[in-house]
Amino acid sequence: MAIPISDPDDPRIEAYRAVRERDLAGRQHRFVAEGEVVLRMLLRQSRFMVESVLLAENRVQGLSEALAALPSETPVYAANRAVMDAIVGFPIHRGVLAIARRAPLRPVEELLAALPSDPLVVGLVGLANHDNVGGIFRNAAAFGADAILIDAQTCDPLYRKAIRVSVGGVLVVPFTRVPSAAAMVQALHRADFEVISLTPSGRETLSGLRRPPRAALLLGAEGPGLPAAVLDQTRTVSIPMRSGFDSLNVATTSGIALHHLAALRAGT
Asked: Which CATH number fits domain 108-266: 3.40.50.300, 3.30.1540.10, 1.10.10.10, 3.40.1280.10?
């Protein structure tokens, strides 16, 4: 049964207060999930512990079956829409929020060793835009990527907006962080991956690419792209575009490349 909240200052819902302003500052190894689709995805993942759920009163009944998966001691709070918006500080959550505990990041060698024999891995280098990171995770989940590696400059995939844009893909695809692009490439090479770098100056085109048995796809930030040292050590691939136009969004680029590699993986 949901616990009614009538006071925006109720200490039991402190973790939700002013989510927009506090999100970047971190939440003691917690993250915020918002929206029904993301909440349902979160409740299906065993690696994240849900600490509590905050719902608008009119959303409780429709989510009752999904919430039944929660341990009995996990509190589910309910508030009317005005009280909920006063707690959170903005109305775009659509009446569904949860606080969950982050899972410890696995060492990159351990994560790669646990993948299937024909893995597809994505590497993100210098991606500071949460929309792009969320979009790439969404594509990775859709096209069956087995893991994502992120460097120290890439933004936090568990930032509230990145999770929302990924439609819960961040909660599905395992990921870990590595110190640098160079360390990422080294770890992938040690694990016998063929590393494919997407770049407008690629020596090969995506349409002619045959999928290696163990494939890693690297994506850099729009503008600077991947470091020259990374391009020198990897297989460079481009997506041909209309003459004079080479500015595909990196999340869009990831979808095209992952679809191609997934199709080759399936033998189609």
From this structure: 3.40.1280.10
